[in-house]
Amino acid sequence: MSASSVSPPVLDRIRIGSAPDSWGVWFPDDEQQVPWQRFLDEVADAGYEWIELGPYGYLPTDPAVLREETARRGLKVSAGTIFTSLHHGPAVWEKTWDHVTQVATLAQQMDASHLVVIPSFWRDDKTAEELEPRELTGQQWRHLTSGMEKLSRRVREEFGLEIAVHPHADTHIDTEEHVERFLDATDSDLVNLCLDTGHYAYCGGDSVKLLRTYGERVNYLHLKQVDPGILADVVKQGTPFGPAVQQGVMCEPPLGVPSLPPVLEAAQGLGVELFAIVEQDMYPCPPDRPLPIARRTRRYLRSCGA
């Protein structure tokens, strides 16, 4: 049998979805973003069944309205997203929990299962100004890890959701070294990862290696690729993440890295059901750009067996 006629692997444990991020949505309200109705129409049109809430307030926050709007398009919600600065310790807990409660309440009412947790940025996303040191102190690491465990425990007890901590460019959980340090310092029964393949590659990490060595700690995936040529320039220039996105550092598959078939096969091999949500950062972008990319990406993932 020729290589071209070999069927793709069956990836029956992978639930494919997309997110407002793939439509250039980074903020609850922004004139450069498409209206939420258009996002819902187009994500369904592109062939996706699962979506994330995106920035809280972009999609309707009234669960009755959102349930009706998603149901009539055949869509279901996998997760909400929150931003945290838990390395600052107990002083930020109350403010953090207020934000979490808002998002988790809506996610729970939409029958979502996860809350994606993104650490705060150490440098400004637009100006590149350093807001705080790139490396955490020992005490800040302890605040971060104990805070995430507390957050997970309360989110699970009060909302029935699992947290998935998202290593992210320009945050304190970014490189392989930082990710492994974070995992080794947290309780595996409480704290697990949203592995974003694009962000991990952006920060020099190997997604397949992470899945093979810490696979039991990955409970959610974001599928994304980086353009290696643009990334090399970003690294050389020290460009912050926002301007890097505007340069096109995140690209549609299969044009970038990492190669997604090995990632999906490694994820399938974990033996658990995993959401794999497509996210192609491209804020801001022309309103007509996302849908054709979303269609091509969905067809490509089907060709990989997902």
TrEMBL record:
SUPFAM superfamilies, per the entry: Xylose isomerase-like
Record-annotated Xylose isomerase-like TIM barrel domain positions: 40-243
Keywords: Isomerase
Any Pfam family the entry gives: AP_endonuc_2
Transmembrane domains' residue ranges: none
InterPro entries listed in its UniProt record: IolE/XylAMocC-like, Xyl_isomerase-like_sf, Xyl_isomerase-like_TIM-brl
Molecular-function GO terms, alphabetical: isomerase activity
Name of this chain's protein: Sugar phosphate isomerase/epimerase family protein
